[in-house]
Amino acid sequence: MPMLAATRVFTGTELLEQATVHVSDGLVIDVTPGFAPGAEVLDGTLAPGLVDIQVNGGGGVLFNDSPTVETLRTITAAHAQFGVTGLMATLISDESAKINSAINAVEQGVRGGMPGLIGLHLEGPWLSEPRRGVHPQHFLRSLNAEDMDTLTRDRSFRLMVTLSPEQASPADVKVLTAAGVIVSIGHTGAEHGDVEALLMAGATGFTHLFNAMPPLEGRKPGPVGVALANTHTWAGLILDGIHVHPLSARAAFAAKTARKLMLVSDAMSTVGSPSASMTLFGQHIEVRDGALRTPSGTLAGAHLDLSQAARNAVSMLGASIEDALRMASLTPAEFLRIDGQCGRIAAGARGDLILVGPDLDVRKVWLGGAVVR
């Protein structure tokens, strides 16, 4: 039975000085004060493994290019090196056949016990055309009966969808959430009343807050205003200092707090890869000044890993180390309703752990109690 004794242990909710985490059969059994005899002593902060709800790719591969179990294995392994022990493989707007392939691949991966894979995030194609970003226009559409049948089938994994009020109704959202689908609002220019109607119907999140949304105005709060004012919903944030200005990010942090603001990577294939370029739907995308952009300058996902986002939370938001770690672990786990399994160090949770230094540099990673880095 692995015993990991660290100078500090962050459980997801509190910081303990000198404690030992006991792991057996892949699960945390107990957390006890002090250094238990025979334990491996670790210098640093032992924390829950990071949880990323928006991962398009990594390790040189993109999920949209090849939605297979092999691709998922490459992506999860690439992000595990950055401390991500649970991720939602993300498919951006694509054809129906590609969506079905993604669902089948994630189903196989989860049923096969693939380490680090939580489920599937379908970011579209039910998005507003004027707010589509790099999502191909010809794939965008309103939610239809065939889509509803696909999304509400029995499955063994967490399913999250990003949609807009322009393309889905409150009645649609009610059906989806009744089937256990986690609904997030994004890529929308909808009026605040239409956004609130989807929240009333069961939507609980906002995808990459500020991005692909109109700016907040005094007399036009829009989706950003609704997200900041609503204390019961979660919001994802791409914190690379490029997608969102640090001052706007601090405003979101003040409004949502670490309990409802989630750090996300929106990572593309270049993360965890030596390549600084990629192809997306036939367009050449390359890293320029830390951002992935099309030739016209449009942002195309992010060249960001979640551990860097956590470090940025400290430097850009003034967040404590505990809040930065929480926004990258427990908070997204609560949004996905899997916080009994991951996002915290507590009896019964998975032994998915990271050891970080004082600057949140990832020094060691465990998946199910087994060292992977």
Could you describe the 3D structure shown?
The chain has 373 residues and is an alpha/beta fold. The protein folds into two domains: 3-46 and 355-371, Roll (Urease, subunit C, domain 1), CATH 2.30.40.10; 50-341, TIM Barrel, CATH 3.20.20. 26% of the residues lie in helices and 28% in strands. The chain is built from ten helices and 20 strands. The chain has helices at residues 69-80, 96-111, 145-151, 170-178, 192-201, 222-229, 246-256, 306-317, 321-327, 330-335; strands spanning 3-10, 15-24, 27-33, 40-48, 50-55, 57-58, 61-62, 84-92, 117-123, 158-163, 182-185, 205-206, 234-238, 261-264, 277-280, 283-288, 291-293, 353-356, 362-367, 370-371. The strands form four sheets. The chain has an eight-stranded parallel beta sheet. A seven-stranded mixed beta sheet has the order 3-2-1-4-18-19-20, with no helix packed on it. Strands 15-16-17 form a three-stranded antiparallel beta sheet, with no helix packed on it. Helix 4 runs parallel beside helix 5 and helix 8 (306-317) crosses helix 9.
Number of DSSP helical runs: 10
Beta percentage is: 25-35%
Order of helices and strands: EEEEEEEHEHEHEHEHEHEHEEEEHHHEEE
Major β-sheet annotation: 8 strands, parallel
Q: What is the domain tally?
A: 2
Strands of the biggest beta sheet: in what spatial order?
5-8-9-10-11-12-13-14
The Rg value, from CA coordinates, equals: 20 Å
What's the CATH H-level superfamily name of the largest domain? Metal-dependent hydrolases
Write a compact overview of the structure shown:
This protein is α/β, with parallel strands linked by helices and 373 residues long. The chain is built from ten helices and 20 strands.
